[in-house]
Amino acid sequence: MVEDDALEQWFCREVLPLERSLTAFIRRNWRVESEVMDLRQDIYERVLGGASAGLPANVSGYVYTVARNHLITQAKRKAIVSIDLYAGIEGLPADADPLTPERHATARDELRRVQAGLDRLPARCREIVSLRKIEGLSSRDVAERLDIGIDAVDHQTSMGMRALADFMLGGEGRVARPLRRRPAKRGSLT
Questions:
Q1: Is there a domain that residue 91 lies in?
Q2: Which of 83, 71, 91, 84 is nearest to 23 (CA)?
Q3: Domain containing residue 151
Q4: Residues 68 and 121 both lie in one domain
Q5: Vertex 57, ends 52 and 60: CA angle to 5°?
Q6: pLDDT digits over 148-186, tens only?
Q7: What pLDDT, on a 0 to 100 scale, did the predictor assign at position 109?
Q8: pTM of the prediction?
Q9: Are residues 117 and 61 part of one domain?
Q10: Helix H segments across 11-149?
Q11: Are 15 and 59 in contact (CB under 8 A)?
């Protein structure tokens, strides 16, 4: 057991100089800015509690391990949904449809627009995008099915999705093919 005075001196000498980098570490790994200072204080509390049994040899490694573990614990706690949140669901009528007719109509219009965008793609590109994004096949599975390379599948998927996004945002939805450079003629300086 470490005496309180020695623990306090150790903390001021070894841990507090890490404050700036520890705060930056927390900011990089935590989404809610307003919670960063509270998290840092919680970490300090855990560092002091653990060090009271014996001072660690590698202080920065110890502090960052405590910080990482604390952030993981806090993230898990935030992911747990309270049962009270679901208590009101029982009061809803069983036949209630949360989708209004307007939402159904809007969704149908969006699906028609996606289909129109897909129809504008070149046949091979459309087939690859459909297999990858609609049927959910992996690049490897699509490559095997179509007997082409995985890089070609990824390239076609990327081009097709860009064209589809362009169409959905009001553009023409054309597949943009990269410009190929012609090989320089022998003897030219370009």
A1: no
A2: 71
A3: 101-168
A4: no
A5: 90
A6: 999 999 999 999 998 888 888 888 878 776 656 666 666
A7: 86
A8: 0.44
A9: no
A10: 19-29, 36-51, 59-79, 83-87, 101-120, 123-129, 139-146
A11: yes
